[in-house]
Amino acid sequence: MQQDKHPDYHPVVFRDRAAGYAFLTRSTAASDQTIEWDDGETYPVVDVEISSESHPFYTGKARTVDSEGRIAQFERRYGSAGQRAGGDATA
Q1: Is the pTM of this model over 0.90?
Q2: Tens-digit pLDDT profile for residues 4-25
Q3: Using H for helix, E for strand and C for coil, what is the string for the chain?
């Protein structure tokens, strides 16, 4: 078996500044910043933009962007398929 092939796997704190939420897990991510955790130990901290505390899907604040179908939207924008530029639908 080859030695030293796997990356360093260690405890890391991931912090979501937007939600004010942080969690301790194990990862290969590295950071120069550190934070003192609840257990009194100091761990590297990685700031993330979105976590389960701030993501709309997990918070239940998800929005429905568009409920109209793509074909209906095309027909509304450009007219129905039977209409042609010269008024002749058989051309």
Answers
A1: no
A2: 888 889 999 999 888 888 999 9
A3: CCCCCCCCCEEEEEEECCCCEEEEEEECCCCCCEEECCCCCEEEEEEECCCCCCCHHHHCCCCCCCCCCHHHHHHHHHCCCCCCCCCCCCC
